[in-house]
Amino acid sequence: MKLRMRKPDEPAENILVEGDRSEEIRSWEQSIFAKQESAIYSVKRKQSLQARYIYGFIFFLTNLLAWFVRDYGHKFLHILHYITVCGIDGDECFHAAGVLRISLGCFIFFSSMFVTTLRAEKLQEARNSWHSRCWALKVAIYLLSVMVPFIIPSGFIQLYGQLAHVGAGIFLLLQLISLIHFLSWCDSKWMPDLQSKKCGFFGLFLSTIFYLGSFCGIVLMYIMYALDTSCAINIFFITWTAILVKVMMIVSLHSKVNRGLLSSGIMCSYIVFLCWSAIQSEPHTQKCNTKKMMAEDGDWTTILSFLIAICAIVMATFSTGIDSQSFQFRKDDIQSEDDDVPYSYEIFHFIFSMGAMYFAMLFISWEMDQPTRKWSIDVGWASTWVKILNEWFAASIYLWKLISPAVMRDKAINPEQHVQNVQVSV
């Protein structure tokens, strides 16, 4: 409280009242400043959240550009024929090589965003403004990143294609981690809990729906893709998937695990989908796949399936990219502040850079020298086995996640029992 000299005829109470009034004015100014600062942070947070969709749209356009260069680039992009690194007929810049060049440009762009937004933590930092704003400059950088690979020698592009196999595998692993984190969230959200007296009726309803969908999917795959005993490979895929569904259901209901059926039901539906997608990726010459006879340029069902597949790639990359909590090594419960960034920018851009390698592998069917059909995506035996291995790996990781708490608990109990037995014998 600030005091001043009292006049001879002035009462002392006036001095105290004036001091209290100055304190009120100061606190009022502080509250106004705090509200203005909170409003600024709210605007910046909204810009940051909206930026995710712009990056997702850029990634979607890159997928369409890669498809156009692969299927129609040799007809419409005549300027590429005059570039030295594209070869005499320009084949080194079209088809699979063109996809790899577009993918490399997308990888360069998102990698540069990863480097420039690394360790961004506060909304008032320049790195936050760079992530959420300056779109004209970033569009120019993106266009430059996409054009530069078309002047890079073919040998380097082939090397990038080999590295893209690894990057695509990393993306599938990150996607699996995000899915398992989502399953844990579903269990905590909707499954019954004795401590909180939560009945979990909606979770049980969802569990029933997912398991019914899994069983119906297995039956339909037997009907559509295992027509007779000559379709041995499809019978093996479907039967092994059915075994995995049964094992996950039994393990999740075991007394030592007791995790309920919701997360296992979702995972069962996921591996059934992967099995179906793997069979769909078999070469179009296989007689055991009913969806084989198509026009070379694609009918409306082929085009629709192709567009859905592209949207699925973009959504998978976007949903994995915004799930930054799944990839944090530290799980400390740190209270977030108003000026903290809403999600991890570097993880977001890193996953999109891996997604650039992933869509390249899908467009060339994981083989750089194999010709691809128009309006096709992820077709071939390499694609089939990648999906099957991804299915088996996902089921193995999920089963280990179910049984690992019980295994660790038994390991912790057994040494104590051994010590007690030794003491009794002594």
UniProtKB/TrEMBL annotation:
Specify the signal sequence span.
none
Swiss-Prot/TrEMBL keywords: Membrane, Transmembrane, Transmembrane helix
Q: Which InterPro entries match?
A: TDE1/TMS
The main location is membrane
Subcellular location(s) per record: Membrane
| Membrane topology recorded in Swiss-Prot or TrEMBL | Multi-pass membrane protein
Q: Domain of life of the organism in this record? A: Eukaryota
Q: Which PANTHER family match?
A: SERINC-DOMAIN CONTAINING SERINE AND SPHINGOLIPID BIOSYNTHESIS PROTEIN (PTHR10383:SF23), SERINE INCORPORATOR (PTHR10383)
This chain belongs to the protein called Probable serine incorporator isoform X1
Task: Write down the species.
Answer: Phoenix dactylifera
A single GO cellular-component term from the record reads: membrane
Cited Pfam families: Serinc
Where does the sequence pass through the membrane? 53-70, 99-118, 139-157, 163-183, 204-227, 233-253, 260-280, 300-322, 343-364, 384-403
Q: Which family does it belong to?
A: Belongs to the TDE1 family.
